[in-house]
Recover the amino acids of this structure.
């Protein structure tokens, strides 16, 4: 089941969760992460989806991205502590980042067992089995900076999505 599909100037973003019977409480919020001095983003948002799981339930969480204009955007995989991210850089200077917490983090936080995890260039997909009753929360953070004036501003979207994802 597709939980959300959003189009941005840098990519189409789709989150799907299977099976769909346990998906609840989907929210979208603008956020304003406290970036260090010298960093800025034009905007940052956080998508949150809660999933109800009983012990033994298997769920598949998949985040897929389709770049807008293959010639226009350079795409790279980025990572951090418990963070999987995909960064987009345009020839015109815009930098954007899309991130979610890693399967290991989901496993540690919610009593889920990772059955399988795949990370392709533009797709993040994991299958989990609930070991206890759980209500995992999937978060997708997205940030963009247009015309970064410094290296700090160029790194700002990645930093912003890391701060936006709540522990």
């Amino acid at each position: 089941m597709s939980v959300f599909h959003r189009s941005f100037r840098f990519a189409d973003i789709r989150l799907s969760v299977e099976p769909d019977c346990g998906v609840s409480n989907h929210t979208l919020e603008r956020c304003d992460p406290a970036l260090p001095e010298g960093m800025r983003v034009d905007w940052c948002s956080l998508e949150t989806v809660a999933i109800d799981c009983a012990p033994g339930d298997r769920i598949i969480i998949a985040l897929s991205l389709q770049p807008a204009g293959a010639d226009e955007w350079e795409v790279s995989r980025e990572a951090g502590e418990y963070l999987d991210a995909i960064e987009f850089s345009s020839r015109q200077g815009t930098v954007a980042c899309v991130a979610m917490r890693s399967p290991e983090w989901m496993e540690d936080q919610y009593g889920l067992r990772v059955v399988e995890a795949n990370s392709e260039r533009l797709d993040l997909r994991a299958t989990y089995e609930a070991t206890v009753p759980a209500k995992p929360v999937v978060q997708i953070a997205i940030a963009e900076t247009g015309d970064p004036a410094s290296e700090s501003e160029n790194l700002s979207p990645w930093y912003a999505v890391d701060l936006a994802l709540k522990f």
Observations:
- Residues 2-164 form one domain.
- Helices lie at 103-110, 151-164.
- The chain is about 15% helix and 55% strand.
- The radius of gyration is 16 Å.
